[in-house]
Amino acid sequence: MAYPTVDAPYGLVPVNLIGGQPYAGSTRQMKIASGYATDIFNGDVVKRAADGTIQKETGTAAVTATGVIGVFVGCTYTDPNTEQKVFKQYYPASTVASDIQAYVVDDPDACFKVAVVSSGTTIAGTGYTSIGSNAALVQNSGSTTTGNSKVAINGIATTLSLPMRIVDVVEETTDASGNYTEVIVKWNVPHEDSNVATGGHAYMVATGL
Description:
single chain; 6-stranded antiparallel β-sheet; 16 strands
């Protein structure tokens, strides 16, 4: 069976851990503040707010490493209208509930499959030589129909403040030019710039929020 054509980005999808360790599907539950006014889609990057809740991370080439906490993969809350527990693929903006819990892949060693774009949602390719380079996030709006993110990567370079590190390519996505439309990434090591930690994952930074 042929590998499906990658015609649009789909967010960050956990596949395993660095070193080839299996990903067992483990997540950590984290609170979202009642009424938080931004959609968060499955595969979006999230950060820790000062009050301990999580929010969508909107950074691209630079993210605040003291806040980035992982990748959102769904949530649950009590619907204020039906008073029934709801399990959602995405968090709808401005949901009012006192018990909103997000499921977050917060392991800093997690590896994710992600699409490469030239900009926006336009799929592009990258060569095998991109392995070991860093990459920026592309923050596209997700789909309220599927609940999935459209986050992707581009800006592949050696710039040390970029948040993602490319550790492999998805061989099945090679094209006639020898480029790949999907790669495997992990969180980069945070970089300190003027005493401010940027790029990477909050668990790798000694200072807190």
